[in-house]
Amino acid sequence: MAKRKEGVAVDTTEERREEVDFDEEKLREDLERQDIKAFRDEYLLLHPYDRAIFYEKAGPELRRTMYYFLSPKEMAEIFETSEIEEEEYEEFLQEMEATYAAEMISFMFVDNAVDVLKELDKSQSVSYLTLMDKDAAAQIKELLHYEEYTAGSIMTTEYVTVPQNSTVRSAMNILRIQAPSAETIYYVFVVDDDNVLTGVVSLRDLITSEEDVLIESIMNERVVSVLVSDDQEDVARTTQDYNLLAVPVVDFQQHILGIVTVDDVLDVLEEEASDDYSKLAGVSNMDTFDKNSFSAAKKRVPWLIILLILGMITANLIDMFTDTISQVALLAAFIPLIAGTAGNSGTQALAVAVRGIATRDIEEESKLKLLIREAGTGLITGLICGVFVIGLIFFWKHELIIGMLVGAAIFVSIFAATISGSFIPLFMHKMKIDPAVASGPFITTLNDLISILIYLGLATTFINLL
């Protein structure tokens, strides 16, 4: 989960994993000897990340001892800082007594608790909610009903608000009371009597203002906020664009419902990037590393079947031109060359278009410009590659006509592949379909079909000249 707390730099690199600066063996010995005092004295002085690393590596038996040595509140911080995979939550929670696990979850930040419970069976989630404190359970249930991948599903309800008609003195008193349970205190959100978001005050402004000054006189009324139904990727981009540490989440009446903090934004960006990369690679899900061959195969087979079907269409297309190939056998030697070049060109154009859409560099008014630019790029690269191939074939086989045929086929194929590689993701984006679905293997196979049709079609048309 790797929660990033305020003011704490957490290094999550593999190098850091190997260079943990504590006596791991001594901690293990303390646990094995059931020496609770020695263990707690050493363990609780560690950086939260080091505690999490030891916890993950300790193994089930030693972890069960840790649950007796540490309170649910102390374990909640460790569980949040750890990098346990989502599908492993159930395994770790089952090591604990049910009441201990429920209490630990209740001490976690609400958004993190929701993330954990969403990965469990519904019956297990209900059991933990029943066992935990009613107030904590109510907060968690409030977020559980929001649709997945929306602002509501990733927001936390642990934030600080102050009335707009309060003074700085009273706002600071509220901050002191709410700060221990708030996920961030750098932004204090200002609301009216109906809990409508009216402004925001930074911690800096509160500290530097006179105590008798009214909050409404120092607050910033131009608050950047997101709707509770907004897609999580849009929320992440908004936070990134405005360089915010947290963004408030509101309903359609502008009532504040929660906040999305920068640590959640980083998780969303990582998740979305992984999802896009999976689709570009022609794999359904690469969020987690598969532990067995069957699981990995199950994700890849559907795409491979689709690509096999397209490949069979390509094979059938080649079979239609058997007579042409049998008359000039040398034509068959250049099929992989033309198909491969077209596929590579289409993949390049696809990468440019998908990246432009993901980063929002491509707006509605510039999509036509992109297509025109890629068309020009296809013409130039196709012409250069076509002329180059003509020269190669002439010096290799001394066949000028065949060289010109292959060169012309490459020229047209690269142009067509570049257009398709940029147009298809733009069209899918327009139709509200994830453009990353136009994956590299899909575009490559499609361009194979188009390029072979162009090549063998030209060869059949000019067969009398060969």
TrEMBL record:
It comes from the Bacteria. Residues 155-217, 219-277 form the CBS domain. The keyword Transmembrane helix applies. The chain crosses the membrane at residues 301-318, 330-354, 375-396, 402-428, 440-463. Residues 1-24 are annotated as: Disordered. It is found in: Cell membrane; Membrane. The keyword Plastid does not apply. It is a multi-pass membrane protein. InterPro entries: CBS_dom, CBS_dom_sf, Mg_transptr_MgtE_intracell_dom, MgtE_N_sf, MgtE_transporter, SLC41_membr_dom, SLC41_membr_dom_sf. Keywords: CBS domain, Cell membrane, Magnesium, Membrane, Metal-binding, Transmembrane, Transmembrane helix, Transport. Gene3D superfamilies: CBS-domain, MgtE N-terminal domain-like, SLC41 divalent cation transporters, integral membrane domain. Its main location: membrane. Coiled coil: none annotated. It holds the Pfam family MgtE_N. Acts as a magnesium transporter. Homodimer. Belongs to the SLC41A transporter family. This is Magnesium transporter MgtE. It comes from Sporosarcina aquimarina. The lineage of its organism: Bacteria, Bacillati, Bacillota, Bacilli, Bacillales.
